[in-house]
């Protein structure tokens, strides 16, 4: 993990990085609810050919028993970015702790669980390169 979150390089390129990210995050219980292709919208300095994808990953977090048949899911959204840079690609995401109130113990516990799942997902993205 970097100072801002997670970042891994996929030397095999953008398409491979997208596939690996989808599989790795799904394998850790995240759902990809949205995908926004923002190629060409990043300004002239980014170029019009560079591919850039924002995936809205959703982790269902912790379920609580409220003493009845009702189960409450606490959710933590996480944006995952796949960006092309030449012939390689990078998969990045912010640290889940950056979007919570650190004084709320429950939020910290949920962010800890999401952080661990994200680390495993990023480890899997890298492992696909070696396997």
Can you walk through the features of this model?
The chain has 131 residues and is an alpha+beta fold. It has one domain: TT1751-like domain (TATA-Binding Protein, 2-Layer Sandwich). The chain contains two helices and seven strands; from the N terminus they run βαββββββα. The protein has helices at 14-27, 105-130; strands at residues 5-10, 30-37, 52-59, 63-65, 71-73, 76-85, 88-94. The chain has a five-stranded antiparallel beta sheet, with helices on one face. Strand 6 and strand 7 (88-94) form a beta hairpin. Helix 1 crosses helix 2 (105-130). It is globular, with a radius of gyration of 16 Å. Residues 62-66 and 68-73 have low confidence and may be disordered.
Short structural description:
Helix content is 31%, strand content 34%.
What is the CATH class name? Alpha Beta
- What is the CATH fold-level name? TATA-Binding Protein
Helix content: 25-40%
End-to-end Cα distance, whole Å, is 22 Å
What share of residues are in beta strands?
A: 25-35%
**Number of spatially distinct domains:** 1
Average of per-residue pLDDT values = 82
- Radius of gyration equals 16 Å
SSE class: alpha+beta
Question: What count of helical segments does DSSP give?
Answer: 2
Layout of strands and helices, then pairs:
Blueprint: E1 5-10, H1 14-27, E2 30-37, E3 52-59, E4 63-65, E5 71-73, E6 76-85, E7 88-94, H2 105-130
Antiparallel strand pairs: 1-7, 2-3, 3-6, 4-5, 6-7
Features:
two-stranded antiparallel sheet, alpha+beta, TATA-Binding Protein, 34% strand, 2 helices, 5-stranded antiparallel β-sheet, globular, single chain, 131 residues
